[in-house]
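Interim report, section 4.2 (structural modelling).
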Amino acid sequence: MKAENVSKRYLTPVILILLLALLIALPWFTRPYMVVLLKTILMFTILSLSWALFSGTTGYTSLATAAFYGVGLYTAAKLGNVLPVPLMVLCGGLFSFILAAAIGAITLRLKGIYFAIFTLSTVELIKNVMHWYEINVAGVRGHRILHVSDATVFYYLLGITVLLLLVTYLIKRSKYGLALSSIGSCEEAAAHIGVNVITLKVFTFALSSFFVGLAGAIMATSINYIDAYIAFDLNYSFFPTLMAIFGGMGNLFGPVIGAVVFSYLREILITRFPYAYMFIFGLVMVLTILYLPNGLVGLYQTIRLKLKQANNKKEKTLGGKHASTSS
Amino acid sequence: MQVLQVEGLTKNFGGLRAVDGVDLTVESGEILGLIGPNGAGKTTLFNLISGTIKPSAGKVTFLGENIFGLKPYTICRKGLVRTFQSCKIFPELTVFQNVILGAFFGTSEKKSWEQAALQTREILEFVGLAHLSDVPAANLTLLDQKQVEVARALATQPKLLMLDEMMAGLNPAEVEAAMTLVQKIRDQGITIIMIEHVMKAIMNICGRIVVLDHGKKVAEGSPKEISTNKKVIEIYLGE
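Predicted structure of the assembly:
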């Protein structure tokens, strides 16, 4: 029994380390296209994990992910030729952190739908102000960004993903993770038992946005050209939200699974059905929300529970028969 | 010794004065009952004292310290904690998680996970919920849920506990159990203010009763005095 427990405890970390090793080795022996695809998948994994870190736990639906991603992209555009790449990426994260802290301090008093709408408007506001500024004041339209090789970008993204997973895991099992769930559960009660709800919300929001900014800054180097409309594209707000819901937020890996399946699906749909892809995409989402409220992870847990119950029942009836024959 | 001192506490909601110049003192170790008809301003008074909403005017002194207009989490960490009329537990979390949150965040001292867990287990034992420790709070009966809320409040190590209609919705046997618990808490040295409509509970366990009507304090005294007070009878029975 004990040995079984120990092996179970080490199973997940061992699988994760093997998976990580495989991913690290991948660029050495796959087609270049595979690395490009994995870059997109990792980028969306980071975005949906960040989204779930704040919105999944507290219940505050943020649609500002695109703003923080855009800040990352613009950081690369402005500082890419000035700073070395690691420093530039770090700046992308820091700028996003600062912006999120400012937005959070203003808006996190808002509840429910008002918060969602405000964050959505923030993306539009930043996009349009940026657009206006570039055309009317700076007199430029768009920026060219320095190029970094696909494999390097891939390793950066992999590193950010691992770091984010680790941070999420540590927060989830700390008292702050518990406090975040208590905010999602009943914020008023949380405040009255001593949780500093505003500081906790603003900090977590900023922290989750930090990772989005990192991802944006390094992903920018794969795009030759950006302007405000490309950088602050609302799809970067909607996709991570949908992916996290699709994967399920009850588990650390839910958003990861959601992002992987979803990005892959998106890639296939875009290449096979370029005109119907948004339609099929929407259909999958509607079905998920209707029939899988807890996402793919929730579905897996339900099936496992059902199997376990069926097994228990079987054992019980067998045991019952045995008892009756012996008496 | 006075634990809480409230002077001229007032709250205006637009043109409505929900709480109107209320004075109140709470002595250490007592159980103070707060009664009055619906809409008298009892819960609003709780909200003002505990920081749920900001008062318009007045003074609130807790253990000699001004707590007027402070944030709820600060007030809680100073040792004043309240429960809610409509039970506000964290339904998705287990009983243990509900209570340990109070232990972690309700005081200013830093605690290790072991210290907080030990304290949580003691409190669950004290209120009689130890056997339900790992059950999601949503699956409990109303009495147990209310006890979780009280346990969570106790985990913040309060000096003053404010209970908002703890007995509401309980059957007679459950009311007995809740009354016993309230007295047990007082015996631990924790001062209690309770809003209650269940007269039996009020009359039996409160040493002193304050009556509110239309946001004003209209009477104050021992249960016996209150039950024979003409004004109170008028309010409750009409003229």
